[in-house]
């Protein structure tokens, strides 16, 4: 049985979540084909064929896939799975994958498996539950396993070295249920949160959106991404896509610097697998200190500029 | 427009989760239970749509044990009109939930179904999407804004890169994200009034529901514990540790 990985939508490079999902596919074993969908995705398909270990790249290039609407994409994926006789369908656990995978699973009449963090065998997986406070080992009885993959739990495969073939796939048409209106995407020169080596994250203690510029400066010195706790996003300090936590982004950088974040379990669920955690908070009782490798009890408005200065040397 | 809202009774989000010593699950005995926080947001959105005149009736559905009546009562106290409990003590996985909700949707004929985007117990984030697929309806997941118009609803979604707005043909499914609204606390008079609102209890067999699990939980374990570290006295000490000990900068 082979595996079909649904590529994270892209019109150019292969996205990191696609590479980590292929990493999970390698743990399951067997060949992995990749479905690239969108409009004007020829370059993305060629780039995907060069990814290490990829078998066939199936390309669905049509106007109805331009915005990756679930209503149009799910029938395409379901048809590809049936035609190819795939035993596994893997998506990255991104907002794209989380939106589309269950819709595909329902069309195939199977129970999907969300956000796996380990592969035990071809039908058995580990996944975090209760905001990561417990880990369930689950075995699927379905003929096709529809799975989303937690990016921080798997190694990305190499983006080069492969020699897959590219095959066009017939488009399945416009479902006529939904249409794209607009997008407000955050533009940033910094690395993406989910692939950054270092993350500087701010919480309610930052007190305002303006004060986040202090973290931007520190992040630029460290080549880091900037994140936030739910409290900071809810307060309107920063946009929603900054949020790290149970229901935001799951990250595991080499260094996570939590500034003015108390450490609610919902936030810890999103970052506790980071290699090194630093916490800066003036409240020495803050729960974040229980999991931080290095805790600094200090006024962040003094400590952050000092830290920025010190790392510049 | 009639709105159907699905709610789930889960371990309260403030409870510290304990894995059972025999690794069969988490400790649920004598643990505080509440409405799933995302479902509360879904109920609130429905009530606001009704207050704005965009909705006429709100039906709240739950699938679960007899005690899920309380969860439905909470939704009724917030402003929903009536409740339906599909009563079962079985573990009901998202695909079976979606199939059961589909049967109820066909019976109730709502124009909009609002659900929480995920339940904070199994963290699946699947039911809304699967219900949409089974009904052949549009889906607006992870919603932070919902604006109905004639025959359509505009849904702004929280996506990885920021926000995205879609227009969905009605009837449609919406799943609520955190910033869609801030749920109200039910007032005492409304709690009293909710006691008189009707809740219909349905036997799953009457709906032809099959709750046979497709996923078998082999074990539930504690995640690896993170060792607490050290407190440093100054920024200089912190930087020295990060450079020389952790070697991450």
Task: Give the beta-strand count of chain A.
Answer: 16
Give the chain pair forming the largest contact, with residue counts: A-B, 89 and 81 residues
- Ends distance of chain A: 55 Å
Work out the helix count of chain B.
Answer: 6
Low-confidence region ranges of chain A: none
The SSE string of chain A, one letter per element, is EHEHEHEHEEEEEEEEHEHEHEEH
How can the largest sheet of chain A be summarized? 7 strands, parallel
% residues in beta strands of chain A: 25-35%
Radius of gyration of chain A: 21 Å
Description:
The complex is a heterodimer of chains A (313) and B (249). Chain A is of the alpha/beta class and 313 residues long. In chain A, 27% of the residues lie in helices and 27% in strands. Chain A is built from 8 helices and 16 strands. Chain A has helices at residues 16-28, 42-49, 70-84, 95-107, 212-222, 230-234, 265-271, 300-312, and strands at residues 3-6, 32-38, 54-61, 88-92, 113-116, 118-121, 124-129, 134-140, 145-149, 165-168, 178-185, 198-202, 225-228, 255-259, 276-281, 294-297. In chain A, strand 1 (3-6), helix 1 and strand 2 form a beta-alpha-beta unit. With 249 residues, chain B is α/β, with parallel strands linked by helices. Chain B is built from 6 helices and 13 strands. A 9-stranded mixed beta sheet of chain B has the order 9-8-7-10-6-1-4-5-11, sandwiched between helices. A two-stranded antiparallel ribbon of chain B has the order 2-3. In chain B, strand 8 (152-159) and strand 9 (162-169) form a beta hairpin. In chain B, helix 3 crosses helix 4 (127-135). The longest helix of chain B is centred in the N-terminal third of the chain and has 15 residues, at 37-51. Chain B is globular. The termini of chain B are far apart. Chains A and B meet through helix 3, helix 4, strand 5, strand 7 and strand 8 of A and helix 3, helix 4, strand 7, strand 8 and strand 9 of B.
